């Protein structure tokens, strides 16, 4: 019996940045448009959100934009995000509310993956222990203190585990200290592996090239994680879904469509 009933991709924002952010050592001076994705996973045991996108307030409020996001230029432009791309808006279109979310699974703590926690208050949040410990050093860029202020209430995971039957969290460190990806069995189609930022683009997978940013320059660890994902996909006949690849995203069902 499969673990999930369906997966809905959610386009939470778009982001223009220098390609070398996604492909280590490649793409200096070349800028790409990338989707910022979350996924709503419906299971027989409840609903899981994989990542939650950005904090809309930091994008829409000039003072917050200037404080948090403008300093990232010119490597990163400020993400473009509309009110309709917030998680509660997507849920409302499905006749749901935040109360219908049983678990938020964070691949890692960068602002474009964890910032939207402010829109899902009260939800149970799962994150890898190494990710929180690295964030607590204060040495990780791209993490904002206010977005992880509730971490003492999160379910800290020390290793790979199963958040629901037929769904397996996979340790894929390198891009960040405690990055996790998610393997999902489906009732009709092949299994899906949500890579998170272990692989931003299909290029990362095809060429086995690390993301541009690696925690403490652990490029070898990041490439090992990519190879582990590819090996698992080959063993299980699974599809690998990179996280910031527009060409790939356009092959997925548009909301409210889903894969099952």
UniProtKB/TrEMBL annotation:
InterPro entries: MBL_superfamily_lactonases (IPR051013), Metallo-B-lactamas (IPR001279), RibonucZ/Hydroxyglut_hydro (IPR036866). Keywords: Hydrolase, Metal-binding, Zinc. Residues 35-244 form the Metallo-beta-lactamase domain. GO terms for molecular function: hydrolase activity; metal ion binding. Signal peptide: none annotated. It holds the Pfam family Lactamase_B. Its cofactor is Zn(2+). Belongs to the metallo-beta-lactamase superfamily. This is Putative AHL-lactonase.
